[in-house]
UniProtKB/TrEMBL annotation:
The keyword Repeat does not apply. Residues 426-530 form the Histidine kinase domain. GO terms for molecular function: kinase activity. InterPro entries: HATPase_C_sf (IPR036890), HATPase_dom (IPR003594), His_kinase_dom (IPR005467), PAS-like_dom_sf (IPR035965), sCache_3 (IPR033463), Sensor-like_sf (IPR029151), Sig_transdc_His_kin-like_C (IPR004358). CDD domains: HATPase_DpiB-CitA-like. Residues 1-32 form the signal peptide. It is a multi-pass membrane protein. The chain crosses the membrane at residues 174-195. SUPFAM superfamilies: ATPase domain of HSP90 chaperone/DNA topoisomerase II/histidine kinase (SSF55874), PYP-like sensor domain (PAS domain) (SSF55785), Sensory domain-like (SSF103190). This is histidine kinase. It comes from Catenulispora subtropica.
Amino acid sequence: MRRLRSRFSIATQVLLMQCVLVVLLTASGSTAAVLQAHATERDGARRQVLATAEALAVAPSTVAALRAPDPSAVLEPLTTELEHQAGVDFVVVMTPTGVRYTHPNPALIGGTFAGHIAPAAAGRPFTETYSGSLGPSVRSVVPIRDPGDGGRIVGLVSVGITEHRISSLFGRQLPLVVGISAAALAVAVLGAYAVGRRVRRQTMGLGPVALAELYEHHDAVMHAMREGLLLLDPAGRLILANDEAVRLLDLPAQRTGRTPDELGVDGSLGAVLAGGADVADGIHLTEHRVLTVNQSTARRDGRDLGTVVTLRDRTEIQALTDELASVQGFAEALRASNHEAANRLHTVVTLIELDRPGDAVRFATGELAAQQELVDRIMGAVEEPVLAALVLGKAAQARERGIELTVGALTAVRDLPLPVTDAVTLVGNLIDNAVEAVAAGEGPAARTVTVDLSDDADGLSVRVADTGPGIPEAVREEVFVRGYTTKGEAGRGLGLALVAQIVKRNRGTVAVSGAEGGGAVVDVRIPRRAEP
């Protein structure tokens, strides 16, 4: 039976169950209606015979006929006419002891009434079902009182309708009851068919086993995916989010039916999700992560079903990319240093060959002293070797591009209030952005970048100033939004957005201002977290 059920779609099963249920309900209702109609006819017959018998019992002509020498001769025509007018099968007038004066069958006149008469003889009318001389019938027996004799019972009258007549009356109503039942059944079946068609469209004709397997596979895939998956309806409300999406976006437990803004997804990612436009491999930042986002509109049969969003966590990849960029920068710095060292060595050798050893010594020691001074200042002030190496590497890269990177005299970093990886990303992106701005500048102006790092009891301060073209005041807030760039190149505009992410994550502040002689100044403040 189970295998047979699995062969039918849910719509077919619903239709069959509804049809069976409708047939059972209609059959039950029809049976109840038939029984009710039969009972109604019987009750009508009981009321009819009782009313007829009482009317005949109180009629003056009946009492007068009982006083006549031959009551049968007077009463027989009256009862025969009454039987036809009242639609009853017999009207029997009898003595108080039950001897008949009238009967539809003249041969039975003078005989004893077949039925109970004791209650009526005692003065109480009653109705019963009894099998008499004409067969089973519903009959009433009523006493006849003589008003002129103090109400003495002078006779009895019985009026009855046979069961055959009651059945014939019910038979005339039966086609109407059956017709109504058949019409109700037809309407119910049509309704069940309409519901079945709707269910078939909604379930795409799948059976319960197929739907169960589809759900199980869907649930397994949703939990196993290493990418975050979001399904949004056409109004932008969340329909579904898998485990990875919940983790990546820190979604609350009560999330279904809410918009991205209500879920706390803001910034550029929130704008993309709310907009619903197609996106391919877009990079967006949340408070803690860097995400690759793909978004596309889902359609079926020309209907807009909403949007499908996939999320990939590239936070670690971005960190590795930053580290790789730093390593590449170090390699390029080493290559440049090697090239410069070779040039200086050739210069020293040439001066010696020209018999000018004093000039050679002054040239060599002067270059070494300048570089060593920068190294000593940074390594003496910045205790974190990775951060110190970063600044030295950036200085070498800037020097190779003809830009002077100077470190402020107040530089002193003893204890970082944020992870060293965040500090490297923060300082590295600020310096890179400043170097790019200076390199893009035109004219004979000084090409310098100044870095100030200071550490105190309240936290870490980072200031990076450049002599580039500067940042207009109207867009100083936008530079920290992912994708903003003045270079017009795809894929740019991520560095300062990462800076803003780190600052926000560490509950710091960042501000942009203009330098006195032109250029831009970026100030970052990272507070220390209170000890628990």
